[in-house]
Specification:
The chain has 249 residues and is an alpha/beta fold. The chain is built from ten helices and eight strands. Helix 1 packs parallel to helix 2 and helix 7 runs parallel beside helix 8. The structure holds 2-phosphoglycolic acid. The site of 2-phosphoglycolic acid (PGA) has 13 residues, from strand 8.
Length: 249
Amino acid sequence: MVAGNWKMNTTVEQGLELARRVAAGCATQAAVEVAMLPPFVHLRPLREVLSSSRVLLGAQDVHWEDAGAFTGEVSAPMLAGLCDIVLVGHSERRQLFGETDEQTGRKFAALRRHGLRAIVAVGETGAERDAGSTAAVVDRQLDAVLAAAARPPTPDEWVIAYEPVWAIGTGRTATPGQAQEACAHIREHVAAVAGSAPRVLYGGSVTADSALELFRCADIDGGLIGGASLDAEAFVGIVAAAEAAGTGR
Ligand code: PGA
C-alpha cells in the first residue's frame, strides 16, 4: 500500500487536479493499493473524481464519539460511506494537538464500530531513539490501540504506519536498516499480542528516489507519504517503486 497524507494542503480545486493526475498515473499498478488522504472538505468532490479509479479515499483523523458537542470534529458515522480508510495517531496529532495513546485507541475503536479501515501511525522521537527506547515507545502506542479493541483486529481491518517523528517532513529518511528493524519489531509484537499482524508501512521523508530501497525490505509493505504526495509525478513514482518491489498484495 502507498498512502498519501496531504495534511492541511491544497484547495479543493488543487486537490481535484492532483487526484485526477494521481489516478491516471497509477491506473496500471494493480499490485499496489493506493490511497489518498485529503482534508475533510475534499472528500465528497474527490469521491466523485475517484469513483471510476482504483484509488482508495481516506481521511486524516476522526473523533471517537459518534455525535455530540465537539465543535470542529468529524465522526466515524459521517465518514462511513464516504471514505475507505482513516488515519489515526499521526505524530502531528499527538505532538501539536496533544492526542494521547488512549485517545488514538478510542478513535481506532470508533472506526471499527463503523466498518472503516484504519491506518494507525506510531513512531519515536529523536530523543527516544537516542535513548534506545524505540521498541518500548511503539509497543506502548500499539498496546493502547489493541487494548481499546473489543476483539483483536484482523489484518484486513487495519494497517500500521511506522513513522519516526525525526524523519517526518525533515528530509531525513530512516535508513532501510533502521526502518526494517522497527517494522519487523512491530510485526512481531502485534502478532504476539493480537494473534496476527496487518501490513506495516514506513513513513518519513519518503521520495521517489528513496522508496524502492525501503520497499524492498522484507517487513516494509509500502509507505505513508507526506510531502511527496502533493506532487503527482513524485507520488506516482513511489507507487511504481512499490509495484517494482513487489510489496503490493
Ligand atoms: P513526510 O510526511 O513524507 O512529509 O515526511 C510523512 C507523514 O507525515 O505521514
